[in-house]
Amino acid sequence: MLYSKIEGEGKPFIIMHGFLGMSDNWKTLAGQYVEAGFQVHILDLRNHGRSFHSDEWSYEAMVKDVFEYCQANQLTKIDILGHSMGGKVAMLFATTHPEIVDKLIVADIGPRFYKQHHQDILAGLNAVDFSVKPSRNDVEAIVAQYVPDFGTRQFLLKNLYWKEPGQLAFRFNLEVFNNNLDAIGKALAEDLVFNNPTLFIRGGESGYILDSDFDAIRQHFPNVKFETIPNAGHWLHAENPKMFFEMTTEFLKE
């Protein structure tokens, strides 16, 4: 079963992080959704955070996990939000289990195929040799050689934890990502459609969702609304959480 944090009372609202992320990335916003009247479930997807590791890693497997999570927690009518990789999971979940999903929110990812672009990040993570018992500063210095952006590094290094006294490790399953990296870019199958209300939010400076993607998104999600957070990149929910929260709650309360 997936690891989750459940807070609040009200309509169930599932939130799913992106690649190399975890539920903790959504902690602050989750608290705001609780105050807005939702029962919030922030998940760690398989091979991420505190959830289980598995050699099988695909969108189909992640959707199966979420479906089993909903069954175990008796969630029958939910709203669902996913960012990046989590957005792809949310899209596939909504189109294959539409009887469970009322509203869908997708943050800065489209249904199309995305070619691999995480090579530098993975090179930096793979360059860390935990057998020599590096400190947190040592790990950051190594990753910095490959990932110069401070914000991206801090996001990645949230995955560091003390596996045992004096021994750090990453929470995610790096070996499986190395072996199955193409899985993350997979497109949503062309025949999949979700007819309920859907919101796609993009970062104005991101480039993950282009104007030219709108027609293809409408084919999968005919009841779609588009929003853009200006001056925000791919981590739009962290760069402008106030606007992100306002856009999403307005949509959920409609």
Automatic annotation (TrEMBL):
MF-aspect GO terms: hydrolase activity
Superkingdom per UniProt: Bacteria
Record-annotated AB hydrolase-1 domain positions: 11-109
A matching Pfam family: Abhydrolase_1
UniProtKB keywords: Hydrolase
Protein name (database record): Alpha/beta hydrolase
Source species of the chain: Flavobacterium frigidimaris
